[in-house]
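New to this. Help decode the following:
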Amino acid sequence: MSELQGSEGTTQRLPVIEKAEYEPPPAPEFEPGREAGREGRFWSARRVPAAVVAVLLLAVTALFLYDIAAVRAHRPAMAWRRDLAHQLATRPLDDTWVLVGAGVTAVLGLWLLLLAATPGLRAVLPMRRPHADVRAGLHREAAALILRDRAMEVAGVQSAHVRVRRAHADVRAVCHFRELGDVRADLNTTLDEAIRGLGLSHPPALSVHVRRPGRKG
């Protein structure tokens, strides 16, 4: 409480506002070994295929519209369109060029359908979600670098090459001392723990290969 002295010598007690202690709720800790919902792959925006298809369609549409407008203006149609119409009207369906054109069109259509139906972004591995509103991914190169650094910490490992795929993590190590079986066992233990620590939604299966360095000369 504080006091304020007035002009007539009287004092008045003023209320004191004390700050309420605020303790934010503790954030949920992410445990590497905790099971979480399995997340799907990230969907690619596919800007390059979409841009290529849009530019091609725009160019073909503009060309046809220009030719149709020219015909409406009592000008002769373009020679290529007259020739195309003649070829389409006279060539049989079993003609080689007709079959080639149909095959190319079908392949392009299947390719576009495949792009539309698959997620893409194969280089990004989805991670578990400790928070419902947060979603993260880890690039394969980054995961391979982490596993390689952990592999190099194992005693006896001279060099290591790691390749991370969607379902497998292939580790090839060169051991210059210690028994190969002991090094392989330590690598399995260390890298299993490292993979769990990555927090991936679909942890890749580990495959470890250990060999001696080749002889020089």
